[in-house]
Amino acid sequence: MVAATTFWVAVGLLGYTYVGYGGLVWLMARVRPRKVAAAPIRPFVTAVVVGYNEASRIAARIENLLEQDYPADRLEIVIASDGSTDAMVEIARRYEPRIRVASFPDRRGKPAVLNDVIPMAKGEIVVLGDSRQRFDRRVVTTLVENLADPTVGAVSGELVFLKEGQTEAAVEGAAFYWDYEKLIRWSESQVDSTVGVTGAVYALRRDLFEVIPAATVLDDVVIPMRIARRGFRVLFEPRARAFDWKAPTSSAEFSRKVRTLAGNFQMFATERWMLSPFANRLWVQTVSHKWLRLVLPVFYVAALGANLFLLDRAFYQLTMAAQAAFFGVALAGYLFPGIRRATPLVIVPYAICFLSWATVVGFFRFVTGRQQVTWDQRSTATR
Q1: Percentage of the chain with pLDDT > 90?
Q2: pLDDT tens, residue by residue, 177-190
Q3: Is it the case that residue 206 has pLDDT exceeding 80?
Q4: Which of 187-196, 303-312, 370-379 has the lowest mean pLDDT?
Q5: Is the separation of the CB atoms in 185 and 267 below 8 Å?
Q6: Does the N-terminal or the C-terminal CB of the chain have fewer CB atoms within 10 Å?
Q7: In angstroms, what CA-CA distances link 317 with 4, 10, 281, 298, 304?
Q8: 45-248 is classed CATH 3.40.50.10320
Q9: What is the DSSP code string of 87-113?
């Protein structure tokens, strides 16, 4: 009885985490969406890009921001150097006075730089982005128009991944995962607020920004969640698009996911109010969208372990065979890369196990304190 209960609870939670919650929040968004009073406003905006040793692409990034379809006299561009040791600052200064350069002598990580730069921004709205991505020309305009609604405190854009050459199956699987993730964020946004934003492209009201711990890994979740805690909505706006290149290899994608997952463990350890239904009005979304994903490896182990005690029944022999096939296909995809590239059916099991292992590694990175707040974005991009 205990084994059967354990098995079905684990399977039920796996199903809810992967499919159930996404389907539920999508249905709620379709049945009863909450409208946004968007309007064509043009407040003063500060666009901030934080970078470290980005000499090779900071000029292109500045040009991209200068090309925004937004009144130039209403847009301040700030390039913040997090202790760069290359020519990034010198190159950026060539664009003064059209932009402002904030150069910090020591590398401290993006959160510490944001803590310094955002309060000094001249704009009532702050648009944040990274040096690697490129904005669509109407990103600033589209994000800002959503903030015409006084109930909205932050707006996330959509990160679109571009494909350059052949990518590995885990990267393709991660791309499918990202598409599903964006659907969930859109649905949450329609119902009330999404949990977190896309750090590469989002806007917030400067007055709602709260200083965050300098060691924060997921500033793009902590900052908007603190805004939501104050009663404001956090939206997902798919029309505000930023473009990036997919990670070129599975190892690059794995490193990115491990960092993100370690950051999630850190976030729940430091922002404990997020797991309280009394302190977090987005508690259901937070638990369903973020916390349960961190426990997925436990659910897999529980389902497999419980199944071993139920093999005296024909039905559970079939479920064991199904689990063995699933993990066997994933293992084959790992051992024989050619199979996962040539066989689409291998991608999903491999990608799921890939992400589950990244969760395990991310957990140990967190508990051992090995995950640093600084991050070399160039390691995950092809260009």
Answers
A1: 80
A2: 778 889 999 999 99
A3: yes
A4: 370-379
A5: no
A6: N
A7: 13, 17, 43, 21, 12
A8: no
A9: SHHHHHHTTTTTSEEEEESS---HHHH
